[in-house]
User: Fold Transporter from Cytobacillus oceanisediminis.
Amino acid sequence: MKKHEQWTSKLGFILAAAGSAIGLGAIWKFPYMAGTNGGGIFFAIFLLLTIFIGAPILIAEFIIGRRTQKDAVTAYKVLAPGTGWHWLGIGGVAVSFIILSFYSVVGGWILSYLWRSFTGTLTGLSQAEYANLFENIIANPTEVVVLQLIFMLMTISVVQGGIQKGIERASKYMMPALFILFIILVFRSLTLEGALEGVEFLLKPDFNNINAETVLLALGQSFFALSVGISVMVTYASYLSKEDNLTKSAFSVVGLNIIISLLAGLVIFPAVFALGFEPGAGPGLVFVVLPAVFNEIAFGGIFLTIFLVLLLFATLTSAFSILEIGVAALVKDKTEKRKTAAWSFGLFIFLAGVPSALSFGVLSDVLIFNKSIFDFADFIASNIGLPLGALFISLFVGYRIPRQAVKEELHAGTKGIGLIFDLWYLSIRYLVPVAILFVFLHSLGIL
Assistant:
């Protein structure tokens, strides 16, 4: 048995962890959620809840992972031997399996758009034609399955390389590139005539739009965007050394996630408003409205290609972490088994995701509780798996692990955390579980 792998640097861990969090949640889901829920007020609430609810859960996952230096299943066995808490880790692996099964389908859609953008067939269409194109792509069984497979092969090829030579190395290139591409797009969007209206929509809260629905949706978006609740960050933190500052690392990840969400809004909303499109277009905002928006500006095809490249990077870095949690649980430090585990687990996820890929075409008539296969998988993972996982993680750290052990782990690599620890510990024991419970009950239609 070889020594447990570790990140080569704190920066490498932060970029990989931020890459895990920064994916479709920040770039695809956040803009349309903000667009349909009041813009500035949604962003303001999302910002507050990410800091005060999402960050504490992230720190809790970091504590579990680094304390044990084990995978997401074994970690709970070490901290709570002889109990059933390890099912929390097993549940995280299962939910991550479901997430990547439909997440890879969207990754395939991005590859489809990127190919069309490179070949020049994605420009010069009307908004109605962009809508028809999206419907035709997701309904084409051969295209969606083949591209889903290609996306999974790209993910597997990185994860099989391990933490240092695979995930960390890829993240060190992809994350800086993502920020550079975003800055280019933000600059272009803000220079459009009439862009200020879009900036105001995103950054100027209208308190008339605030209601319980907006608050609950913003909290759900915070969980989705940070990837908390499935023990992904337990796995990533298990590769940390005791010298790393968990609090600073957590807030670095949270900060980068907020910045990317902000940049995504500053790319999309100024352009949407400047060219007279509807910000509340919903999930089709990126795949239908945005291509139409870029089609109206000079060199729009180039800027659309840049956006799709960064969207692919963000989607892949998230996919790496989602696949890693299962691979780590299978390998258990036996690094010679990593390649086999990555390929077998990854291809199994691909096969399980084929029905989701076909749910807008040949399997469109197959409904589960009035939802397509894709939507049902999304609902099970996002509306049940994530909030339940986050709830039990907060309870595990808040009530199962001795307070002194939690404090010692958070203190390692950190100086002067007395007040910070007290506030965080109160939050993880009381505020966080109550907030998550509200989100969970809302997702089930009880509230």
Summary: The domain at 10-443 is CATH 1.10.4160.10 (Hydantoin permease). Residues 41 and 208 are 9 Å apart (CA to CA). The longest strand covers residues 367-368.
